Amino acid sequence: MSGSRYRQALSQTTNALFGKRMIIAKSQKDLEKMRAVGELIAEVREALRAMVAPGVTTVELNARAEKMMRDAGSIPTFIGYKPRGMVPFPYAICASANDAIVHGFSNATPLKEGDIISLDMACTLEGFVGDTAITVPVGAVSDEAAQLIRVTEECLELGIAECWPNKRVGDIGWAIQQHAEKYGYGIVRDYTGHGIGRSMHEAPQIPNYGRQGTREKIRAGYCFAIEPMLNLGTAETRTLDDKWTVVTADGMLSAHAEHTIAVTPEGPEILTLTREQKRGRGDVRSESVAA
Description:
By secondary structure, this protein is α+β, with helices and mostly antiparallel strands. The chain has one domain (3-281): Creatinase/methionine aminopeptidase superfamily (Creatine Amidinohydrolase, Alpha-Beta Complex). It has 6 helices and 15 strands. The strands form 4 sheets. Strands 8-7-9-14-15 form a 5-stranded antiparallel sheet. α4 packs antiparallel against α5. The relative contact order is 0.18.
């Protein structure tokens, strides 16, 4: 078996024997594929961002996303995704409006002025997964909705900034929590970020809260999906009858933002940026990540 495939098999064996999964470091070749799928899903995300407007439906957004993914030779990772005890997820994206936090189903109801819509998406290309999410205002939104989106994006950036070798997974959640709590937002605890690579969900779990210096040590070659989910009110959630859509327990707004990142010896590299966005950040890189 080659590097990451061997580690994947070893992780599965370890999990079966000891109930704990290993974190799988990515090789240079793996990372090249992670960059490619990251750029692809970033292009899909930005195309959907540009489509969002009053009158557009999430079914239309889903159709555009699925077509872009398939036309590029990738597989929409969410379609048919089936955790144990769940029904298969039927859409290419999760479309979660207003009080919906994650896993929302697409539908034919037009978005209206003042809504906010979370769009979460992933695709698989050459055996590797890229995962990203944004929350987009629909037309003009309230000041409190705009601030919620902004702070969620700031939390994402702060969490990513902690992804250096020899730091700890708890540092990521700590950075997110400290910023979110300044605004009194509820930090969703029922759903977390995660490792990512050949599978969409790999070890470790990455909560959006935590204590500095705790949990797993971060090493070069690790790839994470960092995804703060913040609620305007309570952190409590409930799941709708479709068994997937998660909403805020108090009916207040929620926002979600996510990037897939790689940990390099020089710090975090955001993989889910378009080439244009990378140039804008001065972050066009092709250096290797040590496995």
